[in-house]
Specification:
Order of helices and strands: HHHH
Oligomer: single chain
GO molecular function, one term: protein kinase activity
Number of domains: 1
Membrane topology: Single-pass type I membrane protein
Subcellular location: Membrane
InterPro entries: Kinase-like_dom_sf, LRR_Rcpt-Like_S/T_Kinase, Ser-Thr/Tyr_kinase_cat_dom
Structural class: mainly alpha
Largest sheet: none
Organism: Salix dunnii
Helix content: 40-55%
CATH architecture: Orthogonal Bundle
Strand content: under 5%
Length: about 120
């Protein structure tokens, strides 16, 4: 196995997944001991919402921030594509991440919450 820019991109994608999910790359006691990439793919392949992959600490954040995390999740999955040829370059990853960030004045402008609040609001 050769170390290439594409393997660096894969590793970067793994780090993004760790940050977004709040999990280590391999946690034997959680997620059936799957590597984080396989765990996320399994979750995304099920009927669970993508927000279930996000770190629980993100609950209650403004919808726009949650939306940005979901977009970042998509970029991370792009980085960990099983085909190295299909992975973006790091330059592309940076450009994609720059497009995700929105200014704070845009937060909270979505019409429906993406993450359900735990409080009992009517």
């Amino acid at each position: 196995m050769n170390i290439t820019e594409k393997s660096d991109v894969y590793s970067y994608g793994v780090v993004l997944l760790e940050i977004i999910s709040g999990r280590s790359a391999v946690e034997p006691q959680v997620g059936d001991g799957l590597h984080i990439v396989e765990w996320v793919k399994k979750k995304m392949g099920s009927f669970e919402q993508a927000v279930s992959i996000l770190d629980a600490k993100l609950q209650g954040l403004p919808d726009q921030m949650v939306q940005e995390m979901l977009q970042t999740l998509g970029i991370a999955m792009f980085c960990v594509n099983s085909s190295p040829a299909e992975r973006p370059t790091m330059k592309d990853v940076v450009a994609l991440l720059m497009e995700v960030k929105s200014p704070p004045e845009e937060w909270g402008k979505t019409s429906q919450p993406l993450v359900k609040q735990s409080s009992n609001q009517s």
